[in-house]
Write a structure and sequence with these properties.
This protein is mainly beta. Helix content is 0%, strand content 42%. Strand 15 and strand 16 form a beta hairpin. The radius of gyration is 20 Å and the shape is elongated. It binds zinc ion. Zinc ion is lined by residues 154, 156-157, 159, 172, 174-175, 177.
């Protein structure tokens, strides 16, 4: 591909390999393969061997410590809950990478928590704060009042649940089952 040719790529499209080019802005190194993290035009700096992608929607959003994010619980382990981070609060730009985050059991709520399943369940939509980023690992906290579950999903029938007058309790809209959660003050009933 020449320097003046235009080529549009999608996020995740393979652009080359790490032996060929240096991954520049709008790209990431996926185990030796350089892929696009945005929708845009491919640019190659032949002298410096840098490949980059100019986003059609401005620079993509990168996570940083202190950001408030929204995501969905994908897995619950004894010590941590995994979250697929969907977007950053008050930031309409798409995320540069498909970030995965984790909430350690000590970062779920202020009070003692016997098990993480009393705070989150798979499928729940949560609001969380970024407390630490190490490489691809994003540590999240839901200790703050406005953080926690925004929308809970019933473990029996998978329908959404509403809050009750008891703290950190939700009830299924369909089967009336009651479950525990770390409920956010922004819970969507
Ligand atoms: Zn139910």
């Amino acid at each position: 591909m020449g320097e003046n040719e235009e080529k549009i790529v999608m996020p995740g499209d393979k652009l080359g390999i790490i032996e060929q080019y240096v991954p520049g802005e709008g790209t990431y190194d996926d185990d030796g393969e350089i892929k696009s993290s945005v929708l845009g035009n491919v640019k190659i700096n032949q002298k410096k061997r840098i490949i980059s992608v100019d986003s059609k929607f401005g620079k993509p959003a990168l996570l940083k410590k202190g950001d408030i994010v929204y995501g969905q619980i994908t897995d619950i382990k004894p010590q941590r809950a995994n979250i697929n981070i969907e977007c950053i609060k008050d930031n309409p730009r798409p995320l540069a990478l498909p970030y995965m985050g984790a909430i350690h059991i000590s970062q779920a709520k202020k009070d003692y928590l016997e098990k993480l399943g009393d705070a989150f369940r798979i499928g729940d939509i949560v609001q969380a704060k970024v407390v630490k980023i190490t490489g691809d690992n994003v540590d999240l906290s839901t200790v703050d009042k406005d953080c926690g579950v925004l929308k809970a999903m019933c473990t029996r029938c998978r329908d959404y649940m509403h809050t009750t007058n008891k703290k950190d309790e939700v009830q299924c809209n369909s089967c009336n089952r009651k479950e525990k959660r770390k409920v956010s003050t922004n819970y969507v009933n």
